[in-house]
Amino acid sequence: MTYVPDAPTLLAFLAAWFVIGITPGPDMTLQIARVMSSGRAAGLACGFGAITGLAVHTLLVALGISALVVAAPLAFLALKICGAVYLFWLAIQAIRHGSTFDLRPAKPARERSLLSHFSQGVAVNLLNPKIVLFFMTFLPQFVRAGDPYITGKLLFLGGLFTVLSIPLMISIVLGAHQLTNWLRARPSVTRAIDWLFAGVFSLFAVRILLAQSR
C-alpha cells in the first residue's frame, strides 16, 4: 500500500510507540487521578478526550508538514534535525528528572459530567506544549523529505499511534488502582521506564543525525 511505510520503518515506529505508551506523563496522571477520585467512567472519559487530542495533533502535523515539504524541503530537513536534538533533550530530561507520573493519592473531586471529564482530557492533551512539540518532531522521523506520499504516511502513522493507544489507555484506566499500588511499591520500575525512554529516543536521534550527514 502506498501510504504504509516499509517493514523496518514500521517496526521502529511500533517500538517507539510502545515505549511512549508505557511512559507515565500528564495524560496518564490525569486519567488515573480521575479514576481514583471520580470512578472508572470518569477516567475513561478523560482517556478518550486525550485520544481525541492525539487525532487532532495527527491531522495538524500531517497537513502542516506536508505543506512545508512542498514549500521548503530544506526547512523540513531542518525540522528533522531539530527533532533529533529535541529527542536527545527528552532523553536527558528523563534521566535527570525521572517520570512525571504523580503517585500521590488523588484529592476528592466535585461531581462533574462525563462530557466535562472528556473535555478536560482533550484540553490537557491539546494545550500541553510538550505534546505539540513532540508530535511535530516525532512523526517526521519516519518519512523522507522527498516522499510524494508524505501526507498519507503521516496520517497513517499518526492514526496508527492513536488507534493503538486506545486499548492501552483502557487497560491503564481499568487497572488504575492496581497500577498505582504496584508502582508505588516499586519505584525502580518507573526509573527503569525512564531509562528505556531515554535509550530509545537517543537511538532515534542518532539515527536521524547520521542519515542527514550522509
What does this structure look like?
The chain is mainly alpha-helical and 214 residues long. The chain has one domain. Helices cover 80% and strands 0% of the residues. It is built from nine helices and no strands. It is globular.
Topology, pairings included?
Blueprint: H1 7-22, H2 26-38, H3 40-71, H4 73-97, H5 114-126, H6 129-138, H7 150-174, H8 176-185, H9 187-213
Helix pairs in contact: 1-7, 1-9, 2-3, 2-5, 2-7, 3-4, 3-5, 3-7, 4-6, 4-9
How many E strands? 0
Give the amount of beta strand, in percent.
under 5%
Instruction: Output the radius of gyration.
Output: 18 Å
Cα-to-Cα separation, first versus last residue: 28 Å
Report the principal-axis shape. globular
SSE order, one letter for each helix or strand:
HHHHHHHHH
Classification by helices and strands: mainly alpha
Sketch the major β-sheet. none
Question: What's the tally of helices?
Answer: 9
Low-pLDDT ranges: none
Roughly how much helix do the residues carry, as a percent range? over 70%
Q: Please, how many domains?
A: 1
Average pLDDT number? 78
Key attributes of the depicted protein:
single chain, 214 residues, mainly alpha, 80% helix, membrane, amino acid transmembrane transporter activity, transmembrane helix, LeuE-type, transmembrane
